[in-house]
Amino acid sequence: MPDRYDVIVVGAGNAALCAAIAAKETCESVLVVEKAPEYFRGGNTYFTGGIIRFAFDGIEDIKALIPDMSPTEVANVDVGSYPQNQFYDDLMRVTQGRSDPELAQILVSQSLPTMLWLREKGVRFVLSYGRQAFKDGDKYRFWGGLLVEAVGAGKGLSDQQFEAAQRSGVEVRYSTQGVSLLRDGMGRVCGLRVLGPGGFEEVPGRAVVLAAGGFEANAEMRCRYLGPGWELVKVRGIPYNTGDGIRMALDIGAQAHGHWSSCHAVAWDMNAPPFGDRTITELYQKHSYPLGIIVNLEGKRFLDEGADFRNYTYVTYGRALLTQPQGLAFQIFDNKVKDMLRDEYRIPQVTMAQADTIEELAARLDIDVAGMARTVKEFNASIRADVPYNPALKDGRCTVGIEPPKSNWAQPIDTPPYLGYAVTCGITFTFGGVRINGRGQVVTNSQEPIPGLYAAGEMVGGLFYYNYPGGSGLSAGMVFGRLAGASAARDAMALKD
User: Fold this and answer.
1) What structural domains does the chain harbor?
2) Cα dihedral across residues 234, 236, 240, 242: positive or negative
3) The pTM is what?
């Protein structure tokens, strides 16, 4: 153990490990401090699907990421392209134009280079057939700006990043909580006070990168910042993301930044445990709702299930569940789409019912029978049958004359057996955090960087407002983790000169 670490990274999720790996490219000693025990390593990354959004120009970029694609596989897919301007436009569109332009441009421009960098570090990727593609003719067509996932999903991504960190010589301490930042007489961050198995300890460091997640696992902070009722939601990931990193930064004058009253949330199984299950991981989520309708306990629809690809709606729709009676809703499908539902609908732990009539299905799920029967009848009668159905694109097959409408992928629910899945709101991460500059440095209210302090991942505010494009949380963690780690290492090494 060195007398003073060059870089200390707080957290051990996707952003933190990218920061640590990047820092080790330049400096000699990097320490990762993880609050959770080793069993829970990986942060919330472990509970994701491992799908990453990035800009690319075509199949050659994808082949660079997945070099073992066979000629047959290449011939059987249509990946299209997702240029930087489209990624940027999607980000600005779903955040209502509020995303910090500088951070947004860094994310977009560095998304592919960072993926290629991780590939060089040994992280392997595959095409996401099961989640992001539909067979259209003789080709699999990918949609919604997403097509690549880490081998092994979120668990696989985390494991591969830990392996890369270990190969590079990064030291990791588990069950060690960051308590406060240390500063020297000039105000420079010069280490971290921690609470570990041996008690309190001061760990000297030339730079500190905070990548300890948001406050999604802190019921008091959820209620304070997100609003009443949010203390009741289920947490999709680990119980350790309680806002420690944000608090430590604010305590020394960091600028609070971003959308503190908003968050990433999903439709989560009604009977899922209070925190994430490391065996089930992300499979409690239910994201095939564009193929059916969503009703509440009164049997009423309350949102446009086909407003956009689910990549652009599931965050806001997850939050919308909390506004319904008892915070519950039900995704309703018929047999026509049964085989198109994502794998998460087939786990043994799912809360669902099946019936030969809509009335019987409603009764089994404790939904108002008359209300749901009326809703389905009105929905079926409102569909524009003259527009072809195509789940691989925004097909314009919509409803007419009902509120709320369904803008795409409207099909009659008329083929038994009928399926219903009970869901509630599950929170993934919060959008509020601290402000960073283009080097990943944490800044004060006067926009001055705090010397020696950097941040990445969920605790960076200003990137996501109201909503986010699916898969951009992981890419943001990678991009800004790499940026913060590299900047911290360069500045740390400059102190040694």
Assistant:
1) 5-215+431-496 (3.50.50.60), 265-426 (3.90.700.10)
2) negative
3) 0.95
